[in-house]
């Protein structure tokens, strides 16, 4: 991708694609958080079925406002900053293609910054999703994401927004590097094979690979992040690790991998497919404006 193309790509593009994707995948996201917070051996399908049967199918979309707000901040930042940083590297180096090492570096930096930006909404998201798995007296009962942000600030102070920030930033760096780098590599391999063209099928296969890689690398940090944010500050990172190792053994670090994969992989596929289509629409709109300007 050339520098000029990178500069022309809207900053909001990745965030918009992620917001669209999460509307479809939120029930799986919710189940993942509940499994990470609960110390049980129930399967993903069992957990999803149990809560859906108990509270009704619409309850599986509880907390959707927090998911959309999180993607609107976190994903906008991680994709937008990666595009911006990549464009700057290409412009300064004079190259037509970003080397793999620089692509990983840009993805890591943008992922870390996005993790910091998105942590407050992540705290609210985890709590809203985990509420249905808790006893009635332990629930936060945020009616929507904005109310959740207000109540966290009012009841616990601004420091609560940094809850789990270490694991979250670590996960964000791993997520961005694994998703973007593996998607780009898989897409490049598929196109170079000569059997596939730059279409939705190629985008879906490449993003399937990216989702699997990202799920596996991010699982440990994701579990620790969810448990710390759900505890409302009662447990430190060291205490969470110690108690979890004692009660569940090292395998707790992969707790919820199946729902995480089933959630993240479709989310990754939808995000990159939507992003590619939005990119084409954006470039088409830009070309039309340039033609109109030339006519004038």
Automatic annotation (TrEMBL):
UniProt KW Acetylation keyword: no
One Gene Ontology biological process: transmembrane transport
Keywords, A to Z, come to: Membrane, Mitochondrion, Mitochondrion inner membrane, Repeat, Transmembrane, Transmembrane helix, Transport
Subcellular location(s) of the protein: Mitochondrion inner membrane
- Membership in a protein family: Belongs to the mitochondrial carrier (TC 2.A.29) family.
User: What membrane topology is annotated for this entry?
Assistant: Multi-pass membrane protein
What Gene3D superfamilies does the record tag this protein with? Answer: Mitochondrial carrier domain
Q: Which Pfam families match?
A: Mito_carr (PF00153)
Protein name as annotated: Mitochondrial dicarboxylate
Per-repeat ranges for Solcar = 9-88, 102-189, 198-281
InterPro entries to which the protein is assigned, alphabetical: MCP, MCP_dom_sf, MCP_transmembrane, Mito_Metabolite_Transporter
GO cellular component assignments: mitochondrial inner membrane
Q: What is its main location?
A: mitochondrion
Tell whether RNA-binding is among the UniProt keywords.
Answer: no
